[in-house]
């Protein structure tokens, strides 16, 4: 495992386009859209200057978040939202509670009837009614979501959730109060993606198949057409007197279009900068993009050391520890260097801490090399640049259909949902696409024998088993694959086999961080009156 500290700068302007006019108090619009939200006599008011930034009521967010079920990894949406509100300073404990007013004067101890000092019961409690009338700025929550969208999101599989990090539509003095159900979307807990390997680097389609781009009809002899399927360009053809004819120009058009869409898919992301680099070969300056800026970071391995049980106990039915049993303790310690950053505009500097396990997989899978039976299956230089090859279920894990369904309505229902009807079909479901012959270039970490999931030594390692091909949450409907976008992000439960306490009951890691922050600001030293 490795821990990461990543620091980012997010400008207020990228979260709310009206901030520049608000902070200087002068109307200086740069877009016709700046007046759309403010109508004066049925005409846009381009000179509008907002009186305040948009805000939300903290308690309305708590109530709205409690109505959400689970997040993308199956954990309680409410619990994750309360953790974010707690960490970002919104006056809420990690369980959604606050400290009762009557307990504030209790001190550190109290006297009981028999004269014994006890620690006072000073802890946050969930109030029965909304006790606060508090308007809060959403910028910290929006910055957290913006960082995830720009830096951590797997863009090929996960679409941008604009509603979670942008409030440009709150654009008039009568429309600056953010509703609770909208603000609750700012509080979604996000998860870091797995490191890239043979599985997590696959693409949903070999060619880009979404967006505003529509393939034009290429006319060769007055009756030609280039078409594409859900996986990209499918072919080109012309029809003369009812006979299908493929011209040279049709081939050129199909090749050029397929090459362009493959470059779109092969790019590092779907954002403007990544696409320009993929198609034109140069990077766009950071000043051009409105993305969160990465300003530095540190990483450090979490070292696991053994702990030997030296107490003598008889192992009973409860599997209590015996003399000589081995346990483990993980410790990470880091003294980092400095990060210097010159801030040029109003914004937020935020540190994102994350722990990423070394990705491992069970050895019970069908190695692609064991599937090579024909000459063209082996590496051939002439076939090296033909594009992508499919990744199927057995490339990830070998399975069998343990609950076959007889003929009837249930079978038709499963068939319509894409559920496999045989073990052969279950092992050959299309998950995604990988570049051709990539198995010659990279692999993945594997565990074998009793170290595999569910066996006697599985608590010594953490192979992935969070596949859930059917019914997995996380925008599965957006991709034509049983492999969900949620599978590309680290699920904390992957470490449940190692830790005594599950990720649902408590956090796996206890983190103590000290940041020596020195900021040079154009401010008075004392802040006292100077007249």
TrEMBL record:
SUPFAM superfamilies: ssDNA viruses. GO terms for molecular function: structural molecule activity. InterPro entries: Capsid/spike_ssDNA_virus (IPR016184), Microviridae_protein_F (IPR003514), Microviridae_protein_F_sf (IPR037002). Belongs to the microviridae F protein family. This is Putative capsid protein (F protein).
